[in-house]
């Protein structure tokens, strides 16, 4: 993979990285790990059937100095849908509890390579923070490169992760939280609702791409969540998110990414909305489109789980 560093000096600043490039290499992160205005987030999350515990795995091994971002904790508490976006106020409170400030650059990684990290990268973009990147290849690439990891059974980072979830709860309970060090600014153009997806079936203003497997999309393979029938939104096209990645779980070069979208008839000149099962892997498609110079892609946050839960089936 080509490095996303612009220039030859590894000094951390918004000038030393391309704001149009959504990933950074493990070599770049290793060189800049101790920069004071750089925060590293372990955003590992796994599908229910994998039976993996991300916080336990974080405690066993994580990139030195990384904070833990709880994908299932920093959420909208007013819905039963999984890990939906929290409110602007709630996200600001959670980010502040983690010790994040608006001046910080953020690098997000996960334990699979590129998976849930893309979701948290997108969340920061949704709340107006553009200085955020995904670690290309994630923790597996970091470890394969021979870089150190650290373990901590009861660290400051665990306390901060708990404080972030508690801050979310307080906001939704109408309680005061603080201090607020991160100001969030919601970008509604990056998030779609159920009603917008329904309207798009009629209006066809946006190309709708689905990051789930072909089997789930076609209705021939089961959904991982009980009670949810498989299928797809009418008019949507299937581009399984692994097609964005190479064998080492790093983001494909731009020319290879473009081939993937071209094969499904997706035009980069027309608007795009992405979805998946619960709004996580759709963000991997968004990551790929960012590399292709298309940063204005929306995600249907409720995704197939909400669509099917509301009885809007189609195969």
From TrEMBL:
Locate the compositionally biased regions of type Basic and acidic residues: 208-217
Q: Is the Repeat keyword given for this protein?
A: yes
Output the GO biological process annotations, alphabetical, semicolon-separated.
embryo development ending in seed dormancy
Kindly give the Pfam families that the UniProt entry links to this protein. Rhodanese (PF00581)
- Gene3D superfamilies, from UniProt? Rhodanese-like domain
Region feature Disordered, mapped onto this chain: 208-232
Keywords per UniProt: Repeat, Transferase
Residue stretches making up the Rhodanese domain: 34-151, 202-313
Q: Which InterPro entries match?
A: Rhodanese-like_dom (IPR001763), Rhodanese-like_dom_sf (IPR036873), Thiosulphate_STrfase_CS (IPR001307), TST/MPST-like (IPR045078)
Give the reactions, separated by semicolons, that this protein catalyses. 2-oxo-3-sulfanylpropanoate + [thioredoxin]-dithiol = [thioredoxin]-disulfide + hydrogen sulfide + pyruvate + H(+); thiosulfate + hydrogen cyanide = thiocyanate + sulfite + 2 H(+)
Q: Name one GO cellular component term.
A: mitochondrion
GO: which molecular function terms? 3-mercaptopyruvate sulfurtransferase activity; thiosulfate-cyanide sulfurtransferase activity
Does this UniProt record's set of keywords contain Transferase?
yes
Q: Which PANTHER family match?
A: SULFURTRANSFERASE, THIOSULFATE SULFERTANSFERASE
The free-text function statement in the UniProt record for this protein reads:
Catalyzes the transfer of a sulfur ion from a donor to cyanide or to other thiol compounds. Substrate preference is 3-mercaptopyruvate > thiosulfate. Involved in embryo and seed development.
Q: What is this protein called?
A: Sulfurtransferase
